[in-house]
Amino acid sequence: MKRVVIYKVIDTGEVKYDDLDIRICNLVAKGFTYGSIAKALDRSKKTIEGRVLNMCLAVDADNKIEMILKVIAKGIIKNPFDKDIQSPNTGGD
Question: pTM of the entire structure?
Answer without folding.
Answer: 0.74
